[in-house]
Amino acid sequence: MEHSAFRSIMHNPQLNKHGELQHLLTIDGLPKSIVTHILDTASSFVSIGERELKKVPLMRGKSVFNLFFENSTRTRTTFEIASKRLSADVINLNIAASSASKGESLLDTIDNLAAMHADMFVVRHATSGAPFLIAKHLNDTRQHHVHVVNAGDGRHSHPTQGLLDMYTIRHYKKDFTKLTVAIVGDVLHSRVARSDIHALTTLGVPEVRVIGPRTLLPGGLEQMGVRVFNNMNEGLKGVDVIIMLRLQNERMNGALLPSAQEYFKNYGLTPDRLALASPDAIVMHPGPMNRGVEIDSAVADGPQAVILSQVTFGIAVRMAVMSIVAGTSGE
Ligand code: CP
Fold this sequence. Notes:
Layout: H1 3-11, H2 32-45, E1 63-68, H3 74-85, E2 89-93, H4 106-114, E3 120-125, H5 130-140, E4 147-153, H6 159-173, E5 180-184, H7 191-202, E6 207-211, E7 227-229, H8 232-236, E8 241-244, H9 260-267, H10 271-274, E9 282-284, H11 297-300, H12 307-326
Parallel strand pairs: 1-2, 1-3, 3-4, 5-6, 5-8, 6-7, 8-9
């Protein structure tokens, strides 16, 4: 085993002893070679026209359990489409109607589903670290053949969103090493922002900016390799990519902002503000969007927006992640 692979395993419970991706839990600490391999594999699933995706037998006979303990439109649906395109059997557990609502613990639920011969759990949970807990439990109980893919945990990590964002940026901008990327808004509560920052710095983007009010920016951003701006007009100057974030009202404790109107006045992406960026800048948003709060409809529906392309690329990226993870031995 290479020294770099050994170091990765020590810091990264998602890698097996060969340095391969056994689970996808976070982009933090993921080697650049693995990130690039996922993006390249996703490319192979996108056919001419970027709309039709090939159906392949890579996961025939495998069972993928979608466990969404928190609401989702894009992620859950594209994981389901991706599973079907890989020829897997998909089981969408209805959490509200499951025994989780009767007090069954998360790990008891996992053990029971594993006893039904689950091969992969796709997990979204409001608690940061829940997918890590499941992956650790599976490893500790020697169920190495069962894989976990994090579909978003609390405010911690949303790795497949980060990867589909990177796919989208590479598609439109080609070379990461010449870009200035701005992430705008509620970074404090955003798992997408954290995943994007890790992915962008791993892929060699020379300037990653974070723009937002002080109350919505966490400490330690500079240590993550980003430049912080509280003034949106300053922060947007000359950027190539703008990633807008939703105000995560459901994760806020107390009033961190005067009002949505005030927020839009200072941090909403309007056509005038977009004109400060590079003329060919692209506008991204992970969704769901709050029109008139963080983004003006004229921008969201305008020619520089690639927001729906992000959703489409999410299918190929999730196919890539699942097929790569399922192809590892786990031991
Ligand atoms: N971007 C994203 O995670 O959207 P959903 O909550 O709809 O899955």
